[in-house]
Amino acid sequence: MNDYEMMFIVKANADESVINATAESLKEVITSMKGEITKEDKLGNKELAYPIKKELTGYYFVYDFKADTDLVNELDRKAKIDENVIRHMIIRLDEE
Q1: Of 22, 75, 78, 85, which residue is the least packed, with the fewest Cβ within 10 Å?
Q2: If you compute the radius of gyration of the chain from its CA atoms, what whole number of angstroms results?
Q3: Distances (CA, A) of 42 to 21, 39, 54, 58
Q4: Would you call 53 exposed, middle or buried from its count of C-beta atoms within 10 A (0-12, 13-18, 19+)?
Q5: Which spans in the chain are helix H?
Q6: How far is it, in rounded angstroms, from Cα 26 to Cα 24?
C-alpha cells in the first residue's frame, strides 16, 4: 500500500447535509476497499482562485490515506461522476 492525499472541492451552494454526504461517500469508497484513512481535514468554505463551472466558492476537504492502485482508480472515478464535486486531485506522497 502507498500513501496518497486527495483534495476535493464540493459545491458551496448545496445544503450542508449534501456537502457532508458527498464527503462521506468518498470516505466510504476508501474504507470499503480496505484503505486506511490516516488524516482528514475539513477546510471549510473558501473562495476559489477562478470560477469553476460557474462556482465562485466551494467547501474544501483533504484526506490522507493508504491504498492500492485499484482503490485510487475507483476513488478517482467516483469523484469524476459525482455532480457535487467540482474539482478533485489525488497525489501519491513520496516515501521519506
Answers
A1: 78
A2: 13
A3: 13, 10, 22, 12
A4: exposed
A5: 16-32, 69-81
A6: 5
pLDDT of residue 23: 92
pLDDT tens-digit profile of 22-55?
999 999 999 999 899 999 999 999 999 999 989 9
Q: Residue 49: helix, strand or coil by DSSP?
A: strand
pLDDT exceeding 90 applies to what percent of the chain?
A: 81
Each residue's pLDDT tens digit, 58-96: 999 999 999 999 999 999 999 999 999 999 999 999 765
What's the rounded Cα separation, in Å, for the pair 47 and 49?
7
Average pLDDT, the chain: 92
Q: At what angle do helices 69-81 and 16-32 cross, to 10 degrees?
A: 160
Measured CA to CA, the distance from residue 81 to residue 54 in angstroms comes to 18
65 DSSP β-pair partners: 4, 37
